[in-house]
């Protein structure tokens, strides 16, 4: 653990709160299963690869940025993943994955994928980041990651694997994109979506930063270019992950599409949601055209529409309330879910809405993403309470479930960044919500790994830009998230049943 870069943590261990409904609620709450500790000791702590000039030690045993997926052909089977041994300046020694065959009661670690040098992968990849898992409609599982050489915007790749049921292991990963970082080209923030309507189909997407023409003007011209862009990239498999298509950009324009994630509608339409962080000419980045947007494809990703604007976005810096130390977590990074019966689309993110405090908001479309209502604040902590690290999913019956972090229970001046995880659900398309419930915590966010831009420039306390939330079957869901411990971070799973 890089203890020299940690904030002082409170010595007391914070107790777990039992799941309860909000006062005055009349509807039945979720029945919560046990809070299951998924992650265990790291096997990578002795790995000599991945150190940078500024940081020689990783956060040993810190599992952050979790995701989870449920097998639609066998809902008792789920796979979760996270970063393993986070580096202070970005990425991790490896990506870990776990499987359950009993509906989330017990989890077993799967053999490592050779993403990085620490996990038996190419030595040019000292680190790896951005884990994401998914299943397609036929029950094939996929796992994607982003191998990198270091936290600097140098060598970066997009690598994906699928699960081999004959061996009970992941297949050797396929690198579908690799760039050496020259002239500002880099890959970032990957996700993967199995198609519930087309067995064997899955879609990978990420952002690829570059200048027009891949920076082939001249180093001087590139440096002064006002058209740096973040292209939303796309690759697909149609054979269960055995082969992947040549990556293409969904959109070529002077815009920067961050947090790309694809969801599939009941008619097979693909929806890619992303935060467009700047648009247009002039010195970049600028604040022109900053909005949450969605693109559509009606042919499984071969062609994409122009982005439809969901809403303008404005975001404030997330901070620990006691001392203003930054928190690096999911704010403008969106999550998307589709009702597979009605076709309604839901997108959530954290937005300041012109204030100084980010709160989780929701927008909804009932016409295939062409028009949107909202954004409406759906976090319930109150106007001055930060909420973030949101996740949303829609069940088989149309129940919408939402999870998020907030700091409503923080006590100023006690030296503890008190944070809790909350869950809400709606049975009428978010026209109203059933009782809010406390899911996990309180935990001390000060104990989280710290993300650093440089040794004296903190980016913030880091547990990840997202957490996992998936329907199991009916109205039962699994929440998959990272919480702090005395000196690090662990992955937890809680099953929520509606009977």
TrEMBL record:
Which keywords does the record carry?
Signal
Secretion signal: which residues?
1-27
Keyword Signal among record annotations: yes
Name-wise, this protein is BNR repeat protein
Taxonomic placement: Bacteria, Bacillati, Actinomycetota, Actinomycetes, Pseudonocardiales
